[in-house]
Write a sequence for this structure.
């Protein structure tokens, strides 16, 4: 009977490769093939980093007890081409659930793809940061405070502009006419404003809370 050591890895940003998903895949595979799952190791860590404590423990456990190292995808093991070949060339028995027929040729192809994907992720992150830097200085609390203050002033100016608009003047007339006729219900005012096609500041329909804010 083949004895398996399961290794699961995900970075904090990779929700679809969660540890629990990988663990379930491994246990299903082991049960289906009547193998023995001896131990499991997992960690949240970047695949480009070779210094992973749990992976080192899993490999050491495999060597000491002559077990097979199992993982869901090759990129879960590492995203470094050289690191993947280092593990393979050590003579360790490997099982990749995504590619169970893994051989020297397919290993080389998927190892290159794993590193290529890591480089794409790195480039996308770098490009995104460059765009962000065009609009604000990262890590500058004073800059953030100034931007926040500008945003608040801009919102306040839009509010004042709207309160002085013809739309609000119509709303005020309707509210006045309803009140002198003894109808001060916020729900009734909202219903009448909506019937007359008057929109809120954001272009939506009125509700009692919005009417109260306008009246206040």
């Amino acid at each position: 009977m083949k004895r398996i050591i399961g290794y699961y890895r995900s970075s904090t940003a990779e929700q679809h490769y969660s540890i629990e998903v990988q663990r379930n895949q491994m246990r299903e595979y082991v049960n289906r093939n009547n193998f023995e799952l001896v131990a499991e190791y997992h960690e949240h860590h970047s695949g480009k980093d070779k210094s992973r404590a749990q992976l080192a423990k899993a490999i050491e456990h495999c060597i000491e007890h002559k077990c097979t190292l199992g993982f869901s995808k090759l990129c879960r093991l590492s995203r470094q081409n050289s690191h993947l070949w280092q593990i393979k060339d050590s003579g360790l028995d490997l099982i990749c659930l995504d590619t169970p027929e893994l051989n020297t040729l397919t290993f080389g192809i998927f190892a290159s793809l794993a590193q290529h994907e890591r480089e794409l992720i790195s480039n996308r992150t770098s490009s995104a940061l460059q765009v962000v830097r065009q609009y604000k200085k990262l890590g500058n609390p004073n800059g953030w405070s100034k931007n926040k203050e500008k945003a608040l002033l801009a919102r306040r100016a839009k509010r004042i502009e709207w309160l002085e608009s013809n739309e609000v003047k119509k709303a005020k007339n309707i509210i006045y006419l309803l009140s002198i006729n003894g109808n001060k219900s916020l729900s009734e005012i909202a219903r009448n404003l909506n019937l007359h096609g008057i929109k809120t500041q954001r272009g939506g329909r009125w509700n009692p809370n919005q009417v109260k804010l306008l009246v206040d």
About this structure: Residues 104-135 form the longest helix (32 residues). Residues 3-119 form a domain with the Rossmann fold fold (CATH 3.40.50.1390). The mean pLDDT is 78.
